[in-house]
Amino acid sequence: MIFPNYNHHVRNLPKKEEQKKKNWREKQRERQRAQEAYETQRAREAQKKPRKYPKGKTIFGICLIGLIFVAYVAWQSSSKPPSSNNGTTNNPPLTGSAPDFSLTDINGAPFSLSQQAGKVIAIHFMAVSCGGGIVQTNENQLRTLKSVCSSYCGQKSVAVVTVAATTCAVSCLETIRSDYAVTWTLGNDYDDGKADIVDAYSSYSIADGAIVLIDRNFKIAEVYAEETTFETLSSRIGQLL
Questions:
Q1: pLDDT block averages, 10 residues each, the chain of length 241
Q2: Topology of domain 55-240, per CATH?
Q3: Best exposed site among 128, 171, 176, 177 by fewest CB in 10 Å?
Q4: What are the structural domain ranges in the chain?
Q5: What's the CA gap between 226 and 39, in Å, rounded?
Q6: Reported pTM
């Protein structure tokens, strides 16, 4: 039996296979050239765009600044040896007028210390970490001040202010006010980008949680560098009144 097209197919088979291989190699080269062009274009675009930092790294950086600031407050208080007496420290002698300051409380209302002249004033210094963390001393001091304010604020010539020290964008001062029933003035020393209030009182060896008492003549009467009881604080305020 004769198959007239058999020899024709046999002769052309290698050429077709060779053409297929040639086409495949060409497609591979085209894909490679396209990939190289795409990567080159992406590299050029990346050079033009400003570098963006991940949100998590930004928050971490803010928290780190807050921790550095709290360490600075602690260093200020520990770099000068205090002379203590029943939890108080008098360094330098408490004879001068209290350093005046102003701040904006968390409600946006302005507060000026000099406007409270004629009253007995309690200034509480409190370091706050990112997310609203405070040490146990401040938790107890806030409870003590709540009892003091319940006994004196609005009834006697007594004013209370808590000066928070935090550089964090999220400090949760509103949460602290709610959790500890803070009814007195609460504001952040660093809301203007400076720790000027802490600096003004650092010569009195204040530490985190310190309470400074100012008498009715606007002079510093007592500095409690450590945790203070309601009985101690209330008794001294009664003497100053």
A1: 45 55 64 73 66 52 55 50 45 68 92 94 93 91 95 89 87 91 93 88 89 95 93 94 89
A2: Glutaredoxin (3.40.30)
A3: 177
A4: 1-49, 55-240
A5: 62
A6: 0.65
